[in-house]
Amino acid sequence: MMTLLLKAELPILVVAGIIGQKIAAKLWSLVFNSEVPDTAQENVRTAQLIPAAVLEGTLYKLARMAIDRSLRVAAARSEGTWIGKTGQGE
């Protein structure tokens, strides 16, 4: 199971990226009533791109952490040992 989890890391990153991007786009459109600014657009200012990037990056990280944590919990329940560092956290 540990090998499977390690092999699943790349697809996890891809899925987390897609999920984060979709949620960020939905949130952006609800708050600003417009589409997320795109770096390929000529008339978009950097000041508009930075908040969009921060929002998308934050949601990507949250999605990635949730998926990673769920897989580790499932593996621990299946194998009886935790994959990764052990301890109380910081």
Question: How would you portray this structure in words?
Answer:
- The chain is an all-alpha fold and 90 residues long.
- It has a domain at 38-80.
- Helix content is 71%, strand content 0%.
- The chain is built from three helices and no strands.
- The protein has helices at residues 2-7, 9-32, 46-79.
- The longest helix has 34 residues, at 46-79.
What can be said about this structure in brief?
The protein is an all-alpha fold and 90 residues long.
Features:
mainly alpha, 90 residues, single chain, 3 helices, 0% strand
User: What Rg do the Cα atoms give?
Assistant: 17 Å
Helix and strand succession? Answer: HHH
- Given the helix and strand composition, which structural class is it? mainly alpha
Number of helices: 3
Largest sheet: none
SSE topology:
Layout: H1 2-7, H2 9-32, H3 46-79
